[in-house]
């Protein structure tokens, strides 16, 4: 990932530069960068993986927060991997992620844990293979445990969703059933897409009591602010775009829901849908809540646009055969909002050409919102 381009917000990225360039490789050897989080001008956190599969957490701090470097290294103890105090960088084993204390207990599980995803200081997902088959283990911040398990608790396996098997709220650990299948990827057949549409209709019709989704209008503007830090030359366009997205969402909300509040996945994308022996399963309910089905379907369409997937119209047509379809204006507004939320993902996932990819996503949102670039 480039971190020295003057057009990519060097000032905002300065604190993250040691993690994104060759400095980190010189410190710990070659690593695969998985996901980065940045607080502009303050700190950065990077999830990285060594060739042997070991997960690392690399942290970088701005000079005004330099005291945290030694403190973090001291608290890591034997989990300290590398320290470059004068450069504000400390690297630890992922299990020393202080925001995810449950990671330290994974060694106590009955079975071998294979990491599936790691968002530093936010979430870990792994697959556990033991004598009783495969299970999923999730670790989040303890303060977020109740929110991230409420979907699985309320749906309890409905519509092919995972069941909550066990939990440790104080450490933020939850174990869930494994939903077998292959992802509904770019090469999905029309039959698979139609089955996915029917599965989503069942999810939205499930008798699950969930609280309303929150932060749905604030999230796109938060992403626009981050992207304006990363790509300052886009700031005026992002300000206009965030305003247009907010107006679209407000208009959709004012006109009312198409079919009343429904159970929602909350973060729907194709990689959350799997085609298995018992039909289509729906994974990852960490952000489940209640609201307009246009929110979920817009999220799926935005993911398709971001990844260049085709076939969304087949899925929507199948959905409409089983449940009331959302209003076109509401679907368009939520698609634009979700695509704006995804516009910083190329940076967050450490894509080599992230500036160009982020700009391309912003341009796509502009087309959806009919916002003209000056």
Automatic annotation (TrEMBL):
InterPro entries: Aminoglycoside_PTrfase (IPR002575), Kinase-like_dom_sf (IPR011009). Pfam families: APH. It comes from the Bacteria. Residues 128-320 form the Aminoglycoside phosphotransferase domain. This is Phosphotransferase. The lineage of its organism: Bacteria, Bacillati, Actinomycetota, Actinomycetes, Propionibacteriales.
């Amino acid at each position: 990932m480039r971190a020295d381009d003057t057009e990519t917000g060097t000032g905002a990225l300065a604190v993250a530069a040691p993690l994104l360039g060759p400095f980190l490789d010189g410190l710990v050897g070659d690593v695969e960068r998985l996901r980065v989080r940045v607080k502009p001008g303050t700190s950065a956190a990077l999830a990285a993986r060594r060739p042997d599969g070991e997960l690392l957490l690399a942290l970088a701090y701005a000079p005004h927060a330099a005291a945290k470097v030694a403190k973090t290294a001291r608290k890591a103890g034997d989990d300290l991997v590398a320290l470059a105090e004068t450069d504000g960088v400390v690297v630890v084993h992922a299990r020393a992620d202080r925001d995810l204390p449950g990671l330290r207990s994974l060694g106590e599980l009955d079975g071998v844990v294979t990491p599936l995803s790691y968002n530093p200081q936010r979430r870990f997902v792994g697959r556990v293979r033991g004598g009783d088959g495969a299970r999923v283990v999730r670790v989040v911040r303890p303060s977020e445990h109740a929110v991230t398990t409420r979907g699985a608790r309320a749906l309890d396996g409905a519509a092919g969703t995972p069941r909550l098997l066990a939990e440790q709220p104080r450490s933020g650990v939850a174990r869930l059933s494994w939903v077998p299948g292959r992802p509904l990827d770019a090469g999905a057949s029309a039959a698979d897409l139609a089955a996915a549409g029917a599965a989503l209709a069942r999810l939205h019709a499930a008798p699950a009591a969930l609280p309303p989704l929150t932060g749905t209008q604030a999230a796109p503007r938060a992403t626009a602010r981050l992207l304006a830090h990363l790509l300052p030359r886009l700031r005026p366009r992002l300000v206009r775009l965030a305003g247009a997205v907010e107006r679209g969402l407000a208009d959709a909300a004012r006109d009312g829901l198409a079919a009343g509040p429904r159970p929602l996945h909350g973060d729907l994308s194709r990689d959350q849908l799997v085609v298995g022996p018992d039909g289509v399963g729906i994974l990852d309910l960490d952000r489940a809540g209640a609201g307009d089905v246009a929110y979920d379907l817009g999220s799926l369409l935005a993911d398709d646009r971001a990844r260049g997937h085709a076939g969304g119209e087949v899925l929507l047509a199948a959905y409409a055969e089983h449940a009331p379809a959302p209003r076109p204006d509401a679907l368009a507004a939520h698609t634009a909002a979700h695509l704006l939320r995804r516009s910083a993902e190329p940076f967050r996932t450490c894509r080599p050409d992230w500036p160009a990819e982020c700009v391309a996503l912003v341009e796509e949102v502009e087309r959806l919102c009919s916002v003209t670039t000056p």
